User: Fold this.
Amino acid sequence: MADKEPRGEAYETQHVHTVYEEIASHFSSTRYKPWPIVESFLKGLPDGSIGADVGCGNGKYLAVNPRVFIVGSDRSTNLVKIAKAYHSHSVIVADSLSLPHPSKTFDFAISIAVIHHLSTPERRIEAVRAVLDILRPPSSVQGDEGGKALIYVWALEQKDSRRGWDEGHEQDVMVPWVLKGKREKKPSKKRQSDDQISEDRDRDRGMGGQGEDKTFLRYYHLYRKGELEGDIEEAGGRILGSGYEKDNWWAIAVSKMDS
Amino acid sequence: MKLLTLNFLTCAIKTCKTSPSSFPLHPQDSELEIVEADINVLFLRNMLPRLMWNELRLIVNELGLPSLPETAPDASSLLETKLQVPEGDTTGLNIEKIEVPSQVAKDLHRVLLETCIREGKLVCGNCGHEYKVMEGVANFLLPGHLV
Assistant:
């Protein structure tokens, strides 16, 4: 259960941004396997498509399709430094609620495991709106629905995961990330070749080493079934598809036609 | 940061976005570098209609780089036909036509995808706010009073 501090920007600075800044390097070493829905979304784009990866983290999705151009952004300078390695794209440091992109620009946008870090319903809806706002509106060409956004958030319903959360549980939670000892091991070869790495294990996996463990707590809002779709509707989006994958809810949405 | 990126960036301050003078951001005190990349003509062709040509010309001039043509190149000018003797043919009688990136495509690729801002700042033409670029990464985080 989350604490009783007032939620909002200052709260997220302490319980999300500062944590990622500190765990960036270790966090990144556990994030190299793209989730299947995201991978197929990115691979299905025409060459030369322009997109934004809002909350790109270490940039793992920038590697999926080198034939599109993505401007990745993240709140964490340390994560962006890692994401910079993907030379075919560009990365910037930016806040997802103050994106430096012109409105109605991109063919696609992805927001993967980002919006669940915003700590009030209003801010989550605002974050969805910010993603929809930068999408290209539908054109007069028949069948062109405009830019598409893929949004992915952690699910409340994950009773088979190690955490075991499920319907009825508190949705606002603090999730530990354990940095073990001073020395960090690289991921083992077995892990790198493992096709089915569960995101659940990834999320707070400690590494072997010596010295004292340090635990960081990150704020998450766990989405219940239908809630993501509700936020998208509220933000002025239209849902093209949605579903559940590996303890997460996802939805693909477009901006509603301009009136 | 590739110059192409500037085609997709504006001021992070909400009240600036509706003002035409917030786009493009103006590079200042820039230290440029060339980061070589593979040329992809299909990519360039699909990118062409997305480019804000006049704004990119302005940026290129502000950076003191060779000027871009007055109008955006036509997609058809990105490829040119080259005659060549197929590999292994010693008779020289079987000349074939192949399509290769034209000079226009190479120039465009060079300026948009290989020319990068390593250090400097990006300045909003509307409010004057400066965004620092360090080690090729522009930082758009705003101080609290501007959010």
DSSP finds four helices and six strands in chain B. Chain B touches chain A through 34 residues (CB under 8 Å). Helices of chain B lie at 14-17, 41-47, 53-62, 103-114.
